[in-house]
Design a protein that fits this description.
Elements: H1 9-17, H2 27-34, E1 38-46, E2 57-66, E3 71-77, E4 82-85, E5 89-92, H3 95-113, E6 119-124, H4 125-134, E7 138-142, H5 144-158, E8 175-179, H6 181-189, H7 196-215, H8 222-229, E9 234-235, H9 239-246, E10 256-262, E11 268-272, E12 279-283, H10 285-297
Parallel strand pairs: 1-6, 3-10
Antiparallel strand pairs: 1-2, 2-3, 4-5, 6-9, 7-8, 11-12
Helix pairs in contact: 1-8, 1-9, 4-6, 5-6, 6-7
InterPro entries: LytR/CpsA/Psr_CW_biosynth (IPR050922), LytR_CpsA_psr (IPR004474)
Protein name: LCP family protein
Organism: Romboutsia sedimentorum
Length: 299
């Protein structure tokens, strides 16, 4: 059973909450904190439902806070991307997490894509459901093609938690829908109707909806929200980064939201290794990295 789970929830909640905890001493401190204009955080969705073997990272999204160009950027990394995993060899990107969890996944991403990401946030299926419910659900535009497959997946996602959740709820219509936790997880796991890249796009839609909802939530509700959310997320974000971003957090609601699927369609090809081996996504390094770096660090 495969699939997803992204979450920038706790990150955004924390960034907005922190200004209530840390106080600026003077304007100079604020200017110093603004000097680091681009911050990257790896959002990892861990598959916790596999019956055998270690979990893999079935969702990997780089959250970029670009203070220079005032934008939030989401870069989805295709799970099947063929990479060189340190001390392992060439395999799919999501295998790195199974071999060495966050540390090895970060090292693999940084070495293959020439980045320097140090911070991450991890959630699994159950955490995803819990967090969405804490936030009161998310609004997602569901198209007609997705409705049938969404409902087929809802039953599985509903059974993730043994706690009494009431009667199972399905999505009856297309269009803008308010999805609860297990419904949102089901939506993010849809994959058989199109491609892995469309699934990544659905995951980014959920994150965008979460960001919008948080920006419209009364700040008085943040302490209770963050207290509950952080119980479900594993993060290693440095205090320096949290503090620096926190002082800028009041501006985030006005930032543009930009998205990128990596590797790019015109610079990748899909197939099996040696004809009958692993199904992978091969990518042209120079062309892809040029676009990736420009997207993250450029305008």
């Amino acid at each position: 059973m495969k699939k997803l789970i992204p979450i920038l929830l706790s990150i955004l909640i924390t960034l907005i909450l922190i200004p209530n905890i840390y106080a600026l001493e003077d304007d100079t401190s604020y200017e110093v904190l603004k000097q680091n204009q681009v911050d990257n955080i790896l959002l990892i969705g861990r598959d916790s439902l596999k019956s055998k073997g270690p979990a893999r990272s079935d969702s990997m999204i780089i959250l970029t806070v670009d203070n220079l160009n005032k934008s939030l950027k989401l870069t989805s990394l295709a799970r099947d991307t063929l990479v060189d995993i340190p001390n392992i060899g060439q395999e799919k990107l999501n295998h790195a997490y199974a071999y060495g969890q966050e540390k090895l996944l970060l090292k693999t991403i940084n070495q293959n894509f020439k980045l320097d990401i140090k911070d991450y946030a991890v959630v699994d299926f159950t955490s995803f459901v819990e967090i969405i419910d804490i936030l009161g659900g998310v609004d997602v535009d569901v198209n007609e093609k997705e409705v049938k497959h969404l409902n087929q997946t809802i039953k599985t996602c509903y059974s993730l938690n043994d706690e009494n959740k009431g009667k199972i709820k399905y999505v009856n219509n297309s269009g803008n829908q308010s999805l609860n936790g297990y419904q949102a997880l089901a939506y993010a796991r849809i994959r058989k109707i199109d491609t892995i890249y469309k699934r990544d796009e659905r995951q980014r839609k959920i994150l965008t909806s979460v960001a919008t909802k948080l920006s419209n939530t009364s700040i008085t509700k943040y302490p209770a929200i963050v207290k509950n959310v952080l119980k479900h997320v594993d993060v290693n974000i440095s205090l320096d980064k949290i503090t620096r971003l926190a002082f800028l957090s009041h501006e985030l609601a006005s930032y543009d939201m930009k998205q990128l699927q990596f590797p790019l369609e015109k610079y990748r090809e899909e197939g099996r290794i040696n004809g009958d081996g692993l199904y992978v996504v091969r990518w042209k390094e120079d062309e892809n990295l040029k676009v990736l770096h420009e997207f993250i660090y450029g305008r």
